[in-house]
Design goal:
The chain has no helices and 11 strands. The chain has 126 residues and is mainly beta. It is globular and about 40 Å long.
Length: 126
């Protein structure tokens, strides 16, 4: 059974940076595509970024492209989300998710991921 644990959230001011971590157990980042999603109060869960298991290609939502960077370290089975130039609109609970068989056309849709972390709160004040 794959388990995901997120960390790194917090309260920051607009313009600041945070790095979120997602550590996998029971599976490896070499085999699982990992995505980051976020959910703000009253809004649906939305795609943020993903890194594919095969080849490591990265994918971003338009709202974070150029500000956020997803990366991974196979040696510690961890995927990172570096968030720069944070805005109040980035305030949400951030979740990482993993799936071993997800196809490229599905990586932006949370329903296609089998495993989820518990979430970490990111709050950006203006």
């Amino acid at each position: 059974q794959v388990q995901l644990v997120e960390s790194g959230g917090g309260l920051v001011q607009a313009g600041a940076s945070l790095r979120l971590s997602c550590t996998l157990s029971g599976g490896t980042t070499r085999r699982y595509t990992v995505g980051w999603f976020r959910e703000a109060p009253g809004k649906e869960r939305e795609f943020v970024a993903a890194i594919r298991s095969n080849g490591g290609s990265t994918h971003y939502s338009d709202s974070v492209k150029g500000r956020f960077t997803i990366s991974r370290d196979h040696t510690v089975n961890t995927v990172y989300l570096q968030m720069n130039s944070l805005k109040p609109d980035d305030t949400a609970v951030y979740y990482c998710a993993a799936d071993a068989g997800i196809i490229l056309s599905s990586i932006r849709y949370h329903i296609h991921y089998d495993y989820w972390g518990q979430g970490t709160q990111v709050t950006v004040s203006s």
